[in-house]
Amino acid sequence: MSIHQRRERERAERHQLIIRTARELAEAEGWDAVTTRRLAERIEYSQPVLYSHFAGKTEIVAAVAVEGFAELAAALRAVVAEADGPAAAFAAAAREYLAFGLANPALYDAMFTLATGLPFGRPDAPAPLKEAFAALAGAFAQVAGEGDPDVFTEVGWASLHGLVTLERGGRLRPDLAEARVELLVRRLLG
Amino acid sequence: MSIHQRRERERAERHQLIIRTARELAEAEGWDAVTTRRLAERIEYSQPVLYSHFAGKTEIVAAVAVEGFAELAAALRAVVAEADGPAAAFAAAAREYLAFGLANPALYDAMFTLATGLPFGRPDAPAPLKEAFAALAGAFAQVAGEGDPDVFTEVGWASLHGLVTLERGGRLRPDLAEARVELLVRRLLG
DNA sequence: CTATCTTGCCTAGCGCTGCTAGGATCCGGA
DNA sequence: TCCGGATCCTAGCAGCGCTAGGCAAGATAG
Fold first, then answer.
1. pLDDT digits over A73-86, tens only?
2. Which H or E element spans position A102?
3. Measured between CA atoms, how close is A175 to chain B, in angstroms?
């Protein structure tokens, strides 16, 4: 029986190794560099081993994305907990979101740009996805004012997401980065 | 001499045919379906002909993107010209931007998501890119209030871009679409 | 301790991708 | 009529995601 347990433990470790390696490779050289061949070489196994853990490459990307949502949720919760009052929590969450997206470009791509087939906003969505949205909504709802707080959260989220993607694409003036956050926070606070 | 002209004219026509076909194919089946082989087959030439017009596939995507920016600029100018006052022009531009992005998903992908290597916000950027940004900035600057109008334009643009991408990814509630636009416009107007 | 069976893994290969080298063919000009 | 140059196609390369089939190692039973 213990042998079975050891086997399963080793499999789980290798599972995590694949995810971690894919993420590292993507962060270092971009997702284009993450091919099944290179990935297999890095984990020192043959290609087909990847397919005994994941149905395909997109599922590996999805696994990285889920990891990203968990980390984003944790990061948002942390800064919100330390903030002094709803307005400060909102501003802190916005800044943290931007910082997260810019600091982990490949991770952010897996979460939002690449095709992962992850279900969103549905009951069967992975827990980390819901948690990330909940963390954002928690900080946003308190300053939403009148009207549906969900609408406010979605608009705020979209604005931050747009800033991350456009900024990363080199389509916004770098020298205005700080001014953009300040303006966005001020206008959304109303 | 006239023969030369005919040749050049035919080349130019084929050039446009490639761009148009790539766009149609992308809009019909997604950019993944736009392979050099399928594209060559559609224009009824062999693959290498593509490379006598474009350095590579990304350059074809870039050409489609430039076309998209020209159309976006024209669409924005049209609704702004018809609007009654700065606030109405701003709201109309925002709505038009969203409608454009949602109505032409493949085109929008070429412009913003896919790697095109297009220079942005630099002097050597293609004219249509500058025009699109100018059209947006023209409608936005008048309602920017105090502060740098460029900052306001970039934030507004990013918010719209975020809404387009998240909405298209199925990550926002469809029933709140109208409420989102209204809230965004109201908050940005201050 | 040996024989059998299962499990896990690797080698090899399929059809596809973007891209290119080389040769054939056609056409304008002398 | 012949030549030179431009134009285009056939064929192929390396790499992609993914999979079939066989081999070898390890667990199990006698």
1. 999 999 999 999 99
2. helix A86-103
3. 10
